Amino acid sequence: MSAAEETIKAPPSRVPKAALLIRFIGWISSVRFGVTLLCILVVLSMVGMLIIQQNVSGFDSYYASLTPAEKMIYGALGLFDIYHSWYFNLMLLVLSLNIVLASIDRFPSAWSYIVKPKLTATRKWLEAKKLNETRQFGSESPQAVAQEIAEAFKSKGLKPTITEANDATFVFGESGKWNRLGAYVVHVALIILFMGHWVALQTGFDADVRMIPGQKTEQIQLIEYNLDKKERYNVQLPFSITCTDIQQQLIDEAGPIDVQNTLDWRTEVRIADPAYGTYTANVSLNKPLNYRGYRFFQAQSIPIGNARTITLNLTPENGGPVETIKIQRGGFTTLADGTKVEYADFQPDFTIGPNGQPDTRSSDYKNPAAILNVTPPNGESMRVFAFAREIGGNAPIAAPKLGYKWRLGEYEKSPYAHVLSIKYDPYNASFIAWYIGGFGLVGSLCFVFFLSHRRVWARIETREDGSTEAVIAAESNRNPNGMEDKFLQISKALDKEES
Questions:
Q1: Contact, 347 vs 336, CB < 8 A?
Q2: What is the DSSP letter of 67?
Q3: Neighbour-count burial of 403, counting CB atoms closer than 10 A to its CB (0-12 exposed, 13-18 middle, 19+ buried)
Q4: Containing H/E element for 218?
Q5: What are the respective helix, strand and coil percentages of the chain, to the nearest 5?
Q6: Collapsing DSSP states into helix, strand and coil, what is residue 390?
Q7: Buried-exposed string 63-92: b where 16+ CB fall within 10 A, e elsewhere
């Protein structure tokens, strides 16, 4: 068999496995691959904002509004819980790997700018730069010329270094060399952002708890939506929470207690912790509470009218001066004769329900009434109703009780309850992700794009006729227009020195 026939029949050479691995690592660490993954993650995050997620309040009604086809497609693609989906977490992992590999691959060359700056250069290399010029310095010595150029560099913010090599004197100046590492600071911030987000999703949870003044709880109820099935289960807290007060600051105190008329919501809670004692704090709209990895936010209010404080006008049945008392919700006061007056309830639009108990026709303050428990000295407690408006006729409900005519004066409007959103983050991963990673990312991007590494060289040689000549060149990794202005300033500074 001829050599040619053997060549034709020989099996094609295979690419070594090592070469395939190198190609794969090169592909997965490429900037193009990383940018593509980042764009996909941004799109998926936007989908998560547009489609109500199953752990968000209101998902059940949103799910019911969808068509069967939408339910099937969204459910199959995991769009109802996209941030916990396998493909979202996989992309976060792969993008983090891409960032790490890209950093490992490119960091040594960037670090060399810091530890091994290019102090010398050939004449041909300098003349190839876009910014370059050649200057004649007459009979001055190369050392004297180097000092003049170094002073010009220094005056323009470029730290100079003088070096002699290959029968020439070199002056190298630079500024902003740490900008070369800016991209890696961006990489670190991104990884902190991704990993903090992932850890928070895996180890924490979100829950809502209703806060009514006087209510105490040691459990919070988590709601888990499994598409059309809603499951509730309790989670035991390591401490107890007691709501001691709720307040709603209104724009117009005579207006309703809806969102449009609200400046702020405030919930006062008392935390009784066996390990750390008792702690009292306020949770406001722009001031969440952070305690042992639990973050409490104002989520919403239950806008059924109530009163934070009430002022009662008591007119003695047998005549005498009117006595005015003020009671906070859930509190009580004692009259001069020892009668205890307890604030039991409040109805914004008072009526008697089908069961014979006080009720409200609406959530608005149309017929407000305070319900009191009044206990005379050495007597039995009696329920008393105090209305804001005069009740006509001889209605028994407004008749004098225990020697007084009871009238509701002023009252501070307040909702029936506040709803606090509780986010549990045991490792403060969200804090690390959003504050350190997020602000670090913004800061590092500003550092990368608004600063630049500027370098300038001068090669000084003695010509055959004994004169001194210098080739000066400059470059910048960013903002070339700024470097061009800087180069012109250096040239003008040298002109002044020559003159």
A1: no
A2: -
A3: middle
A4: strand 216-226
A5: 35, 35, 25
A6: coil
A7: beeeeeeeeeebbeeebbbbbebeebbebb
pLDDT confidence of residue 192: 86
Angstrom distance (rounded) from CA 300 to CA 483: 54
Which token pair is 100? 């790490």
Name residue 318's amino acid: N
pTM of the shown model: 0.62
Mean pLDDT, the chain, integer: 87
Contact 76, 87 (CB under 8 A): no
Q: Is the Cα dihedral 69, 70, 71, 75 positive or negative?
A: positive
For residues 381 and 374, is the Cβ–Cβ distance under 8 A?
yes
CA separation for the pair 10, 13 (Å, rounded): 9
Sign of the torsion angle spanned by Cα atoms 198, 201, 204, 208: positive
Instruction: Please write down the long-range contacts of 77-81, taking CB distance under 8 Å and 24 or more positions apart.
Output: 79/47, 79/48, 79/51, 80/51, 80/52, 80/53, 80/54, 80/225, 80/227, 81/53, 81/54, 81/55
CB 490 within 8 A of CB 472: yes
Contact 348, 360 (CB under 8 A): yes
Identify the sign of the CA torsion 351, 354, 356, 360.
Answer: negative
* pLDDT single digits (tens) 378-409: 889 999 999 998 876 566 777 888 889 999 99
**DSSP one-letter string for 151-210:** HHHHHTT-EEEEEEETTEEEEEEEE-GGGGGHHHHHHHHHHHHHHHHHHHHHH-EEEEEE
Residue 202 structure tokens: 């895996």
Asked if the 120-176+452-498 domain carries CATH number 3.10.25.10, the reply is no
Neighbouring CB atoms inside 10 A of 484's CB total 14
- Which residues have CB under 8 Å from 70's CB, separation 6+? none
Please write the tens of the pLDDT for every residue from 195-249.
887 887 777 777 888 899 999 998 887 766 565 555 667 778 899 999 999 999 9
The closest alpha carbon to 154, from 375, 479, 456, belongs to: 456
**Residue 293: left (phi > 0), alpha (psi -120 to 50), or beta?**
left
Cα–Cα distance measured from residue 420 to residue 299, given in angstroms and rounded to the nearest whole number: 5
Two tokens at 81? 């819980």
Domain boundaries defined on the chain? 17-111, 120-176+452-498, 187-303+418-444, 306-414
Range of weakest confidence among 189-193, 359-363, 415-419: 189-193
Calculate Rg over the CA atoms of the chain.
38
**N- to C-terminal Cα separation, the chain:** 85
Stated length of the chain: 499
Burial class (CB in 10 A: 0-12, 13-18, 19+), 246: buried
